[in-house]
Design a protein that fits this description.
271 residues; alpha+beta; 60s Ribosomal Protein L30, Chain: A; Phosphoribosyl-aminoimidazole Synthetase, Chain A, domain 2; 6-stranded mixed beta sheet; 11 strands
Length: 271
């Protein structure tokens, strides 16, 4: 954000979400009923299975559009590969994994770009559509809203544990299944008018992304830590093994108190 503040910016009345609040994607209005949602996201491998890696990276990029209440339209592959170390078949499997998630999201893969890189990176640039009236942002949380997590927390800890050989195969399969599941519930709830604010929880964890939402919205938050859903009790064992924290979910706010997936968290107005 400090770097972005120094960039010259062309203001436009059609720019609905830019860099000011550090949201998951930019939103640009086309007309009264439609706005473009644009984002890009990529990272290095967090699992050994190339297909799973491609699926996770694609789902992660698509999630940024879902977190804005949008529906993905098109995607571009973004890849960096050390060609002398990674064989063509592995590259193909990564891309196949990504393509499978793009297809599942009813999104069209229209191309991409690959460069040589010292270590593998893969992700997507995604364009989606959203109604300006139903758009979600990280700046619309209000006092009294409840927090909804679309997935349990702990993926960052577990994937770090996988890299260090501290987890079993069962837990690895479970966390991969969670990370590859699309967060498409976001636009479904937004289109019904049930949500106003949301954020994609990834590398900065629940507290990091929730803190950004609170700053952007001008509210505080209260969490009952023991009631926050986690993937497995093994997460806490890994934490005691000094594994670093991370997560992958969308958190969204609603004025309804759902009995399924609602953590005991409320937003409150700053005094």
């Amino acid at each position: 954000m400090q770097v972005l503040r120094q960039l010259p910016i062309l203001n436009s009345r059609n720019l609905l979400v830019g860099t000011a609040t550090g949201d998951d994607a930019g939103v640009y209005r086309i007309d009264r009923n439609r706005a473009l949602v644009q984002t890009t996201d990529f990272f290095t491998p967090i699992v050994d299975d190339p297909i799973a890696y491609g699926q996770i990276a694609a789902a992660n990029a698509l999630s940024d559009v879902y977190a804005m209440g949008g529906r993905p339209l098109t995607a571009l592959n973004l890849m960096g590969i050390p060609a002398d170390l990674v064989p063509p078949r592995t590259i193909n499997l990564i891309l196949r994994g990504g393509a499978a998630k793009i297809k599942e999201a009813k999104c069209t893969l229209i191309g991409g770009h690959t460069i040589r890189n010292p270590e593998p990176i893969y992700g997507l640039a995604v364009t989606g559509l959203v109604s300006p009236r139903r758009m979600l942002t990280n700046a619309k949380a209000r006092a009294g809203d409840m927090l909804i997590l679309t997935k349990p927390l702990g993926t960052g800890i577990i994937t770090t544990g996988i890299k260090r050989g501290l987890t079993n195969r069962s837990l690895e399969r479970r966390v991969i299944a969670i990370m590859t599941r699309l967060n498409d519930v976001g636009p479904e709830l937004a289109e019904r008018g049930l949500l106003k604010a949301a954020v994609d929880v990834t590398g900065f964890g629940l507290l990091g992304h929730l803190g950004a939402m609170c700053r952007a919205s001008g509210v505080g938050a209260e969490i009952v830590a023991g009631a926050v859903p986690v993937i497995s009790a093994e997460v806490f064992q890994l934490m005691r093994s000094t594994v670093s924290l991370g997560a992958a979910a969308i958190i969204s706010t609603s004025r309804t108190n759902s009995q399924n997936g609602t953590a005991p968290l409320r937003f409150k107005k700053y005094c």
